[in-house]
Amino acid sequence: METRSSPSMCELRAVAADRGLKYYMHLAKSDLHALLLRKNGTTTGTKLDSLRASETAGKSRSQSLAKAVRTSARLSERKRKAEDGEMPRKKKGKAPEVTTNTLDPIMLTELGPHTFKFVRTNGSIVLYNVDTLVQYILSTGDFSEPETRIPFSDEDLRQMDAGIQRAKLDFRSVWEAKQNKREFEEKKVSRDGLLGLERCAGEFISSMLEIVEGDDPEVGEMQLIMSTFPSFSDVFGQIRSQDEEFAKQCLNHFKEYLRGPPNRPNMDNSGLLPVILEFLDDVGKGNQSASAFGF
């Protein structure tokens, strides 16, 4: 009885030819199979298995060779098209622009209708209110982005000028201002001088705080009258003569520093804090100068 595992007709005829049987070409498959089993017994099955294995291996080699040939042909065709410029180019969609801020980086206020877009070297985008950015540049003479210090190009400065014109604001041209470097160099020297005077005044304020927190009010009072107050008055007078608004800001900061934070004020062990604060108020009004102490 023929089953699914019985060999094919070609396999049976190949075995019959190998065994030297006669007239096997005219026999049906089932008859030929039975004849081979009678003549050769189990040897036929072994021969058929070997024949099947060799045919399967041959087919696998043929399929692998055909696949390799097809792959090589495709690669050759793609290479030829690439050399001839026939390869279709993939269309790259324009990536959406993503800004990194919703507040103006200088004033920390909401962005207004007139903004300046700056693309940084890493591809990130930041928006500035054009009016605050232009005022910052003209007041500092620093023609670079405030956050990263990346220099603005001439094209960036022209875009700012165009934004100022659209906003109908009465500001100088930042592009023209950049051409006049000497003006901003003088401002930088003046600003550096003010910062140096502020540091000197800050050292005297630190000395005042040490006296406030000290335990010997008599020694502290003598130190204030003989050294700290006159020196501070002299330095602060120089600051006020150059920039009065900056001097007011410094004085307010000094007072807050002496008082300390509201939730943890500084300890007034010497009882001299009210005296020092009153002195600073008089200095701010111009009533206390170095000449008042004999200097």
Automatic annotation (TrEMBL):
For the region Disordered, what residue ranges are annotated?
45-97
Which superkingdom does the taxonomy of this entry point to? Answer: Eukaryota
The protein, known as? Uncharacterized protein
Query: Which classification does the entry list for the species?
Result: Eukaryota, Sar, Stramenopiles, Oomycota, Peronosporomycetes
